[in-house]
Specification:
With about 190 residues, the chain is of the alpha/beta class. Helices cover about 30% and strands about 30% of the residues. Helix 6 links the parallel strand 4 and strand 5. The protein is globular.
Length: about 190
């Protein structure tokens, strides 16, 4: 949190213009027009703004007040200042977009947080998440990361029975100069039981 509070402007500038369109399609193609989407850990507000322009009903949340203020100005709508650990919506969203945000949740807290996200989804709803590809927890440049690969994802999902795996795929980082960084993209569905 301290990193995003002190580096909000620089982080915003580095991420707001990144073209994420190729990553939107696997997620949006499975949602109805006008579906309710939560941008969970919205960062710069880039994706919330894009989804809103596509005609979806967007709720955006971001734990860092400084980043939330920048995101609010960018996407033209309120951004709730909220941590994943405090999320308590029930069956409110058709889709949840957690792009490069859950990776800051510790491995120990991830099952509970994923359960909270699952409960926020309507039955049959979709959760997109992305993690830096790898294994284990680390700290870099004042931020902590939980890296996940396919095996780690399988272990995690055992503890979150409300979510079922739909698809995973790996991509290179979309920011300039980061081609060597790989991401695990994950699409999960909320089980109807």
């Amino acid at each position: 949190m301290a990193f995003y509070e002190s580096e909000a402007q620089a982080f915003f500038a580095a991420t707001v213009a990144v073209d994420m369109t190729p990553l939107y399609m696997p997620f949006l193609s499975r949602l109805e027009p006008g579906a309710a989407i939560l941008d969970a850990g919205c960062g710069s507000g880039r994706d919330a703004r894009a989804f809103r322009e596509f005609g979806y009903a967007i709720t955006a949340m971001e734990p860092s007040p400084a980043l939330a203020a920048l995101a609010e100005a960018h996407c033209g709508q309120p951004v709730e200042i909220l941590r994943f650990q405090d999320l308590d919506w029930s069956e409110r969203f058709d889709g949840i977009w957690a792009c490069a945000s859950l990776l800051h949740v510790s491995l120990a807290e991830l099952p509970e947080v994923m359960g909270r996200l699952a409960r926020a989804l309507r039955p049959g709803g979709l959760l997109y998440a992305s993690f830096k590809y790898g294994q284990g927890e680390r700290e870099r440049g004042g931020r902590r990361f939980t890296d996940i690969n396919e095996a780690g994802l399988q272990d995690l999902l055992v503890e979150v029975p409300e979510l079922a795996l739909i698809e995973t795929w790996t991509t290179a980082d979309r920011r300039p100069g980061r081609d060597d960084e790989r991401w695990l993209n994950v699409l999960l569905g909320r089980c109807s039981h």
